[in-house]
Amino acid sequence: MTWLTVLSSSLLLLCIRDSGSLFLPDSKELRQLLSRYEKEIDRNSTGNTAGNRTRRAIRWSDREEIIQLHNKLRGGVYPTASNMEYMVWDDDLERSATHWSEACIWDHGPQDLLMSIGQNLAVHWGRYRSPAFHVQAWYDEVKDYTFPYPHECNPWCPDRCTGPMCTHYTQLVWATTSRVGCAVHVCPRMDVWGEIWENAVYLVCNYSPKGNWIGEAPYQHGRPCSQCPPSYGGGCRNNLCYKDSWRSETEDMNEVEKPQVPLLPRTTAKPALPKPKPSTPKKPASKLRDKCKGATCNRYVCPANCINKKGKVWGTLYYDVQSSICRAAIHHGATDNNGGLVDVTRMDKLPFFVKATKNETTADCYTTVAEICPFKKPYSHCPRIFCPANCQSQPSYWSPVIGNNIYSDSSSICKAAIHAGVIKADGGFVDVLPLDKRKSYIGTFKNGIQSESHLVSAFLYG
């Protein structure tokens, strides 16, 4: 039997009475406070010889799993976020989380840090649970949370949590929280709400800058990356504000090696070199494990139109060896559907592969053109949209359809596509072309959907 429980940090009031001090996010005082835990861990480390690393409180694979899942979930929030920042790992936060997890106290702490950091906790015993299991459980509180739109925040945003707790979710997706550090510790005996759990696995994740401010929404709604802080220089990655200068430690450790040219033996006569065989394009279904047997694989020539083939792709950034080489290259952005040259590097097997839709946009039944492709001249096609199944049955209040053949940009893309006859009720790909707004839109009943009449800007399905 497995027991699981989670705990979220209490909200920080905007007005604090009888407080001796207050740390601002990313302040010098916060860094000095975090460094204290680094010194304490160093003092408690024994048997370390020169050149040996202190054992970390979390495995490298778990660390990568946590950070990738955080960014995947943050980039996929609904409604979409215009200022969601890319999250990176912070060693100081990891050290402070290590210090607290080793205390085996089922409560938030230490108190002197909670004024400046956010904190999510989880504990379980029994069969193995990866840290990502708990991170996903924190995010799943979204089912009980209703996002407060700007017109509802007058001046403070309402707290709309219909479940027992939503603050794990809001801290995880707090837009300005850009760093996380976690630790896992096995507590021999831990008091969890009055019950003693033996060999309890305790997960502590610390966040900075702190989120969960009362009266504020976790992020600003709008087109992804349209309101990123100036420090990001306009960079955007998977719907997250991203600095192009960032390179993860994993990327640094797994650069593609340049193949060395073997030296020819010294002879008086020139050796007859074999004629190189003409290279043939690889089929889209070629798998990494078929050809990739060394640390660095050869260069591949991908043909055109691989995106329409049936080869499967597992992973994001890093891919399983059963993936189609050329379709994985398109997914990664190394090439496009016109084909091209691709270099592949073999890595150690990862414990998991993150699923994501890239280089084409996935919409839900409520997504509108105004959200992903605002109208502007000159006209240009929006990104290709993939619509899920069963949008036809969604209520008009959440997914309206306005117009006939030419639709208002406040219409549900996928539901309007069914109305226009471009796709069936089981979903599919849709191309959208923005047009000038019309003075009027006439509603009709087509393909099982009743559209409305209205006045706004427009788009056309092609």
Automatic annotation (TrEMBL):
<dbReference type="InterPro" id="IPR036609">
    <property type="entry name" value="LCCL_sf"/>
</dbReference>
<protein>
    <recommendedName>
        <fullName>LCCL domain-containing protein</fullName>
    </recommendedName>
</protein>
<dbReference type="InterPro" id="IPR001283">
    <property type="entry name" value="CRISP-related"/>
</dbReference>
<dbReference type="InterPro" id="IPR018244">
    <property type="entry name" value="Allrgn_V5/Tpx1_CS"/>
</dbReference>
<keyword id="KW-0964">Secreted</keyword>
<dbReference type="InterPro" id="IPR004043">
    <property type="entry name" value="LCCL"/>
</dbReference>
<feature type="domain" description="LCCL">
    <location>
        <begin position="286"/>
        <end position="359"/>
    </location>
</feature>
<keyword id="KW-0677">Repeat</keyword>
<feature type="signal peptide">
    <location>
        <begin position="1"/>
        <end position="21"/>
    </location>
</feature>
<keyword id="KW-1015">Disulfide bond</keyword>
<dbReference type="InterPro" id="IPR035940">
    <property type="entry name" value="CAP_sf"/>
</dbReference>
<dbReference type="Pfam" id="PF00188">
    <property type="entry name" value="CAP"/>
</dbReference>
<dbReference type="InterPro" id="IPR051957">
    <property type="entry name" value="CRISP-LCCL_domain"/>
</dbReference>
<dbReference type="InterPro" id="IPR014044">
    <property type="entry name" value="CAP_dom"/>
</dbReference>
<dbReference type="Pfam" id="PF03815">
    <property type="entry name" value="LCCL"/>
</dbReference>
<dbReference type="GO" id="GO:0005576">
    <property type="term" value="C:extracellular region"/>
</dbReference>
<feature type="domain" description="LCCL">
    <location>
        <begin position="359"/>
        <end position="451"/>
    </location>
</feature>
<feature type="region of interest" description="Disordered">
    <location>
        <begin position="252"/>
        <end position="287"/>
    </location>
</feature>
<keyword id="KW-0732">Signal</keyword>
